[in-house]
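Fig. S4 source data, part A: sequence.
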Amino acid sequence: MFDKAEVRVKAGDGGNGVVGFRREMYVPYGGPDGGDGGNGGDVMVRADEVVDSLRRYRQRKLQRAENGHNGSGSRKHGKDGEDLVLLVPPGTILTEKTEDDTEVLLADLEKTGDKVLVARGGKGGWGNTHYKSSTNQAPRIAQRGATGEEHTIRMEMRLIADVGIIGYPNAGKSTLLAAASAARPKVASYPFTTIEPVLGVVELGLDSFVMAEIPGLIEGAHLGKGLGHEFLRHAMRTKIFIHLISGTSESPVDDMLHVNEELNLFDASLLRKKQLIALNKIDLLEVQERLDMIKEELTGAGIRAYYISAATGQGVPELMAEAMKVLKAQTEMEKSVEVPGKVFRPQPREPRIKVIRKGDEFVIHAPEFERIIAGAGITPAELSWQLNYQLKRMNINKTLEKAGVKNGDKVRCGELTWEWSFPGREG
């Protein structure tokens, strides 16, 4: 009934770097020439008007970008993975659930072309050329590609319209939409005739605007009663409201106050939208008999109302003309408001390098170092020296020494475990 989807997105993993050496006849001291791995592809979500639903994402729950390709000899860089672009209809809101079960807004893709990065691809790993130095001329280590990000995101397509018609069930919203536009919503006399929003284009000379019927609100809608939450979410996407009240109501003022209270309890910003109040069904005899009393009640409450009959069209053109006038004024006001710059509040960074003692092992947490992989044919002694040498080069050895490491202790990082010995071969 309402277009939603939950999808798991997985960015591409980075390709692995390679341990390679140049071996050619008549080229002495060829040296390391292992190439870097390619970066994994990103996952993007972009709004595009060619898409009209989220159906495809309900059918295919996992969306993956391409992995980066591994490097190769002769310093050849692996090919980057292709980015994955997920197309969604304009008006789609993206959210993600955090570990503490709160929902975080990722993006509001309101118009065609709006896009957001939802999962970043992993970086490609370094080949052994990056580990060469004057004292380490034949490094037999490279770097594994980083893992791409993986997230579960929720997509929800919300209605986008200029004017939303709100009011109690049976106030005549469907009839008004049909009278003012070419839309043909279902019309009947029982509650919740409309179970999903209906759009129509209202044309006034050379001007036009999109009007939507927001299905009827009942008391407790903000708590989700009836279909309250779904309706109220769609109401948030309109610029102004036409608040339609049935002339057959015992108290039109009370009806209006109750609907506004539901808007306020769901989101106080809804009450800040401009409202045009319209009393409907003035063609009915029972309404005509008490129309003067209704007008007096509305005027006494400080309410300026339009008196219409959606069924006969009486007063509808005047109401639409006023809606157009208010919309234009609203648009001009929005243009004149200076949009403040974004304020970034960076979170405190965790230490880039940590050493934790677990039993008889010292475990190093260092993202760049954890991805080191050993080349084929390397001896345990040479691997130990290579790793210790890189630890010193990255100043991780000082952190280990502060943690109390001694010669012969076991040290682990990522998938590699070795015996610690203080590097001593550098010149």
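Fig. S4 source data, part B ends here. The domain at 354-419 is CATH 3.30.300.350 (GMP Synthetase; Chain A, domain 3).
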